């Protein structure tokens, strides 16, 4: 199966599909942290529209779309940036590709209005074996919701808030966004196992 993981520099999701025998690539404006042979450093939408993919998993930027940043829309007049980001997000859902998943934190209502619908599913790292909490929405086309593979919610909730919400409490710095944008390996494995169909 030909798989494109859009807006991914970490190669975590891409490599999960490669390990299962799929013809998988990542694309991002940044260079990849993985093997560059399987990466396009380019405009994600251009690559997604050109190469005849069976499955596209996209991780578009969430800064102007997430509920956590909604206050700045008013205070800094970021409405134009929000509409552009939501339009970019929606473009992935509109791809002429059989299977599409677009990932982002749960959106504020203004972005949801532009995108046209809410997420189909919200997943947590603790559903896939990680002792962390970070709700992530999945907008799906032609794909079933992910089935949890290792529920460690009880152990996660026994941790302190700073321990279980490490992404939220990460120290400020130039690379904080990179750490927060990486997909958890357990979620990537579930995507490859469940959406790859065991059929490279």
Which properties best describe this structure?
36% helix; alpha/beta; 7 strands; 10 helices; 200 residues; seven-stranded mixed sheet
Characterization of this structure:
With 200 residues, this protein is α/β, with parallel strands linked by helices. It has a single domain (2-126, 135-148, 184-195), classed as Rossmann fold, CATH 3.40.50. The protein contains ten helices and seven strands. The chain has helices at 12-19, 44-50, 70-75, 79-93, 109-115, 153-157, 161-164, 166-169, 176-181, 185-195, and strands at residues 2-6, 23-28, 39-41, 55-58, 99-104, 121-123, 136-141. Strands 3-2-1-4-5-7-6 form a seven-stranded mixed beta sheet, sandwiched between helices. Strand 1, helix 1 and strand 2 form a beta-alpha-beta unit. Helix 1 packs across helix 10 and helix 4 packs across helix 5 (109-115). The chain is globular.
N→C terminal distance: 5 Å
Average pLDDT over all residues? 91
Give the strand line-up of the largest sheet: 3-2-1-4-5-7-6
Low-confidence stretches: none
User: What is the CATH superfamily?
Assistant: Vaccinia Virus protein VP39
Q: Please tell me how large the radius of gyration is.
A: 16 Å
Shape: globular
Count of helical regions: 10
Main sheet attributes: strand count, strand direction, barrel closure: 7 strands, mixed
Beta-strand percentage?
15-25%
Query: What is the H-and-E element order?
Result: EHEEHEHHEHEEHHHHH
